[in-house]
């Protein structure tokens, strides 16, 4: 028998999360075996509001905005419910354990101007960690290294600066002033993106992704490929074929045919000042949920959402039924099987699967044409070539001279035979298949933020522009404000700072 929960809420959530505490719902009345049960609860109280939320950045950000700004959510007397289909929160910010040690498996690096992530980290009293600046880097074409930086293991600042200067000269000698043109292209894109942090009194609420992008001057970057944008910026073919390609392959698993905005976001990860949360970026999602008044249901997945005129009915895989007035989907719909009544229309989108393979062992230097493993760069990136079996190999930790933990990114699973060629020793191997981000294809087509014209919202519509922890938070903030401006206006909400803008109005999954 299923159970029905008549939830007195103002905010509820369904997706991916971490704290439990669900009330036991009353059982439905018994029916004869040949009877047809009507799974439609009576309309919920007028003040019910449900958010279907995934427990990674998108969902936790909405709960975080509410908990950090309680005065902005009027008359919010009820509970927030969050449904997470996995057993832990974090989603694509998950970790992996190999040989008893824990490493970031997904989104691992943040940009210095990721202001939502910075504010979350401060709000949650988390510690920042900066990646090593002394790691060496190489570009591999399958036969030889086209480029290798030098590295010197030294804690003497002057030595580190000298090595950095030598590597900079080496890069300029190979790529010339195209490096500056690339930097200008990235900085211009970042400056436009910073408009999303302007004071809310002067920042509209957007009902469409197109309108949100046009307002910041970013929409045209989603209409052309990164390659076209960089040709227009007069970058050299050599820089695009080598360094730019390595960056997009590492960060999005795709070539420079990626759409321009996603490509620019990817390139932003090649600059300085990158950081991560000590202990794992997943703590941001978990911390925001724990700091809010969210009632977390995990593992519990929503399998159908039906709209009955005044409210939504959500059915879960545990046989529970929830009634609510607003539903927010904050997880990609592309590989989920949620049944909607009435049906919704969302542009078909393919996810780019990245295979992350973690190996404890030591590389085979012969595979790379070397006579000693110490000569292999800490990060090996690759050019676009269908014969190359991986996008990158990076050292996560060196335990001794002949014992390392590595992370490999590839578009296809790494077979044991291939791994045995690449590695001299493999003590432990952990493969993960991520449906990590959209497969970008300019010109991009966007799903709406409002899926049914009522109160069914979709945060991940923004992912076709770019997919990072920070862009997810920016989209989540807009949807939170959109709910305030549309739903609470029914109760004569006074909100001079919540004007609406439609499409006519004019991150970072970073690993490198």
Automatic annotation (TrEMBL):
Disordered: annotated segments: 14-47
Domain Prenylcysteine lyase: 160-491
A Pfam family reported for this protein in Swiss-Prot or TrEMBL: Prenylcys_lyase
Keyword hit for Nucleotide-binding: no
Cofactor or coenzyme needed: FAD
Gene3D superfamilies: FAD/NAD(P)-binding domain (3.50.50.60)
Entry keyword Cell division: no
Domain of life (superkingdom): Eukaryota
Keyword set, alphabetical order: FAD, Flavoprotein, Glycoprotein, Oxidoreductase, Signal
Similarity remark: Belongs to the prenylcysteine oxidase family.
The name this protein goes by in its record: Prenylcysteine lyase domain-containing protein
Organism whose genome encodes this protein: Xanthoceras sorbifolium
Higher taxonomy: Eukaryota, Viridiplantae, Streptophyta, Embryophyta, Tracheophyta
């Amino acid at each position: 028998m299923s159970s029905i929960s008549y939830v007195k809420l103002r905010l509820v959530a369904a997706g991916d999360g971490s704290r439990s505490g669900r009330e036991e719902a009353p059982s439905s009345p018994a029916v004869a075996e040949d009877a047809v049960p009507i799974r439609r609860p009576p309309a919920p109280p007028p003040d019910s509001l449900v958010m279907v939320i995934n427990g990674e950045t998108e969902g936790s950000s909405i709960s975080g905005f509410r908990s950090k700004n309680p005065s902005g959510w009027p008359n919010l007397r009820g509970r927030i419910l969050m449904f997470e289909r996995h057993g832990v929160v974090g989603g694509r910010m998950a970790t992996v354990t190999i040989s008893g040690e824990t490493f970031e498996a997904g989104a691992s690096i943040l940009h210095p101007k990721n202001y939502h992530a910075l504010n979350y980290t401060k709000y949650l009293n988390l510690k920042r960690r900066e990646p090593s600046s002394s790691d060496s880097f190489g570009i591999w074409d399958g036969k030889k290294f086209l480029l290798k930086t030098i590295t010197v293991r030294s804690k003497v600042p002057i030595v580190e600066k000298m090595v950095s200067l030598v590597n900079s000269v080496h890069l300029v000698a190979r790529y010339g002033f195209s490096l500056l043109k690339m930097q200008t292209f990235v900085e211009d894109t970042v400056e436009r993106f910073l408009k999303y942090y302007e004071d809310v009194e002067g920042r509209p609420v957007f009902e469409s992704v197109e309108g949100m992008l046009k307002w910041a001057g970013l929409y045209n970057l989603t209409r052309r490929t990164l390659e076209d944008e960089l040709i227009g910026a007069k970058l050299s073919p050599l820089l695009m074929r080598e360094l730019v390609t390595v960056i997009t392959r590492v960060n999005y698993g795709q070539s420079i045919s990626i759409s321009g905005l996603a490509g620019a976001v990817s390139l932003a990860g090649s600059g300085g000042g990158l950081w991560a949360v000590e202990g794992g970026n997943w703590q941001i999602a978990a911390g925001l949920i724990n700091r809010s008044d969210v009632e977390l249901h995990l593992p519990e997945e929503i399998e159908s959402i039906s709209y009955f005129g005044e409210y939504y009915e959500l059915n879960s895989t545990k046989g529970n039924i929830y009634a609510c007035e607003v539903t927010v989907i904050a997880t990609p719909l592309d590989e989920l099987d949620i049944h909607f009544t009435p049906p919704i229309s969302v542009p078909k989108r393919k996810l780019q699967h990245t295979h992350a393979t973690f190996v404890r062992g030591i590389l085979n230097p012969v595979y790379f044409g070397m006579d000693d493993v110490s000569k292999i760069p800490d990060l090996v990136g690759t050019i676009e070539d269908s014969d190359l079996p991986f996008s990158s190999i990076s050292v996560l930790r060196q335990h001794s001279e002949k014992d390392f933990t590595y992370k490999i990114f590839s578009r296809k699973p790494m077979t044991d035979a291939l791994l045995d060629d690449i590695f001299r020793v493999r003590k432990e191997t952990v493969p993960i298949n991520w449906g990590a981000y959209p497969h970008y294809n300019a010109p991009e087509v966007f799903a709406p933020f409002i899926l049914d014209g009522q109160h069914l919202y979709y945060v991940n519509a923004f992912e076709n522009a770019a997919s990072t922890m920070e862009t997810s938070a920016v989209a989540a903030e807009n949807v939170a404000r959109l709910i305030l401006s549309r739903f609470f206006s029914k109760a004569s909400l006074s909100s001079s700072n919540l004007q609406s803008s439609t499409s006519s109005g004019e991150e970072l999954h970073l690993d490198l």
